[in-house]
Amino acid sequence: MKALIIGGGGFVGRYLAEHLVQDCGWETFLTKLPKENVEVEGCEAYNLDILDKDAVEALLVRLKPDAILHLAAQSSVAYSWKNPQLTADINIHGCLNVLDAVRSVPGYAPKILLIGSGEEYGVLPENTSLVSETTPVHPANPYAITKLAQNLFGELYAKAYDMHIMMVRAFNHIGPGQLPQFVVSDFCKQVAEISAG
Fold it and tell me: I need a surface site. Which of 45, 82, 110, 145 has the fewest CB within 10 A?
């Protein structure tokens, strides 16, 4: 199996690449931004701007992965309030560039994973504490709206173009190496700094 992790320079991408190479034995490639430094043994990395549709298509033609795991996103809720335009460009237009690039390659039908967010649920209705895939969504910030739009496009493309697309609504990822711009890693950083005096 050959996999391409788009957005492999992020927090989750490195862990996923290591898992696919070491535990699954998959031939794995990842994309990153030029400023990112990602080294996963047995995994080749490519610089890619998902807003450049031609570059996305050229990479897909070159690699022809069996599975595309689309992790690239502007994932900070706080930043989405400061720059909703860039958030929409990356999270919606970038995703469409990936989906349209797949469609443009004749006879190519990879499995595609799109990552949504628990933020899509937004403010839950009264007396609701647990959510499932059928819980109505009420996105309450620009980031959440872009992730909902991405998943709606994924659903549309799966039906209209018979594409193999799986969508998930992931909740907070936490662990070593996460940037302190996210709440749990920020709290951990503050506790470590207090402990160190």
Answer: 82
What pTM was computed for the model? 0.88
CA dihedral 125, 131, 134, 139 (to 10 degrees): 60
SS3 29: strand
Give the burial class of 103: count Cβ atoms within 10 A of its Cβ; 0-12 exposed, 13-18 middle, 19 or more buried: middle
What domain count does the chain have?
1
- DSSP per residue over 10-46, as a string? SHHHHHHHHIIIIIS--EEEEEE-TT----BTTEEEE
Residue ranges making up the domain that contains 162: 2-195
Size of the chain, expressed as the number of residues it contains: 197
Q: What is the CATH number of the domain that holds 150?
A: 3.40.50.720
Query: Strand, helix or coil at 98?
Result: helix
Residue type, 111: K
Measured CA angle at 21 (ends 45, 115), to 5 deg: 70
